[in-house]
């Protein structure tokens, strides 16, 4: 795999070729990665895979016409042809008055902050195999576990570089590690499955594989002999593992392109109080070792910590340059892109803060409700905010977790759900979107 300097040279060289060939402006992104993945099942090695790849993408502008082209072949002659084809495509493209590079005056300047995203490690397959086996063995050792879908461990490194014709060039490298297990409990038609996993930028930040495996086994056994749920309105608690999906819908609703197209359920909510005043949603791209940390965005703008929701109030949209121009606003440093296509937007490390009390406190006054541990289906309308998803979890009776329940649907509207949302204080920073246990009252449940 190339070094950061070599990766940056690839992107910079392609931009220079485009400008010499007649482009009015251009940018290029280069990415490469190498990863090793080990899979085991029932204590035996099932698969070891090693993947390495590199890709480069070029975007050229002729006035307000643009085109994007990409390749995984780094042959110099082919890349020269890539420039020529990109310019030919741009000449035939329709004009777009919002197209263009990010404003030059907003580009990142100075020394990049250290986000500590790369530990430089490269564990061998034998070490990953031992980690995967330890995880699965711990899951299978939980009383009640009867079979396994397998366990795994992975390690990899990647580099992302971007260069623009108006003065920005930078690269970042990151490492990544993961461990997981998925097992079954019960027999016959009464089988249940569950899993657990953990990801980290630094290998030293991964919990012990045995801890993850034991959690996977215990989660699975708890789901045995699920009952049914009667239909009606009731309080719903969301386990942190699934509660982050609610914030994911918020992020989709505040993307600049959705606002510009007027296809968001939050279209008229800028500056409005849409969450409880105790809650804030924070985007923190500069968190050291964060899973989605980045010092610059995919258009060369600096990133910074921001409150997307500040004490309940929606503060703004996440915008790349094109949607910002369409809305008459300033891009926010949230641009994200691969090697093909124009930039979109993406948040970084997101968390919800402001919760208080334990999860037990949050459910103490619930006579009957449900604690959700799994969601299924994609029944979310991002235009209206209507929400309906299949779910499984545990019944809450008189403030206590009772038996497992499954095969029911929860429904509501995201705007109402956000206003009703309450949070515990059990926030952990272990995912890209982190939330504590969440409670939403008055959701409709369709069960037996």
UniProtKB/TrEMBL annotation:
In terms of superkingdom, the source organism counts as Bacteria
What positions does the domain Metalloprotease TldD/E N-terminal occupy? 34-90
Pfam families from the UniProt entry: PmbA_TldD_1st (PF01523), PmbA_TldD_2nd (PF19290), PmbA_TldD_3rd (PF19289)
UniProt domain Metalloprotease TldD/E central: residue ranges:
120-224
All residue ranges annotated as the Metalloprotease TldD/E C-terminal domain in the record: 231-447
Alphabetized SUPFAM superfamilies for the sequence: Putative modulator of DNA gyrase, PmbA/TldD
PANTHER family xrefs:
METALLOPROTEASE PMBA
Q: Which family is it part of?
A: Belongs to the peptidase U62 family.
In Swiss-Prot or TrEMBL terms, this protein is called TldD/PmbA family protein
